[in-house]
Amino acid sequence: MSIRFGTDGWRGEIGIDFILANVHQAIIAVGNFFFHKYRQGVLLLIGYDTRFQAQRFARYCAEQLSWLGHRVLLANKPITTPVLSHAIRHLQAAGGIMLTASHNPPQWLGIKIKNEYGSSAPASDTAWIETLIGKETKPFAKGCWQIKDFDEVYLQAIHNRVGAVFMNQPGQKVIVDCLYGSGQGYFPRLLANYGWQVKEIHAEINPAFGGLNPEPIAANLRDLQKAVLQQQTVGLALDGDGDRLGVVIESGEIITAQDIFLLLLYHLVENKQKCGKVIKTFSTTAKVDLLARLYNLELIVTPIGFKHIAPLLIQEEKVVIGGEESGGFGFPDFLPERDGIFSGLNLLELQLISRESLPNLLNQLKQKLGPWHYQRLDLVCSPEQLECWHHKLNTIPAKIGEKIKRQEKMDGIKVHFSSGAWLLFRFSGTEPVLRLYCEGENPAEVDYLLSAAQDWLND
Ligand SMILES: O=P(O)(O)OC[C@H]1O[C@H](O)[C@H](O)[C@@H](O)[C@@H]1O
Question: Of 426, 415, 423, 417, whose CA–CA distance to 447 is shortest?
Answer without folding.
Answer: 423
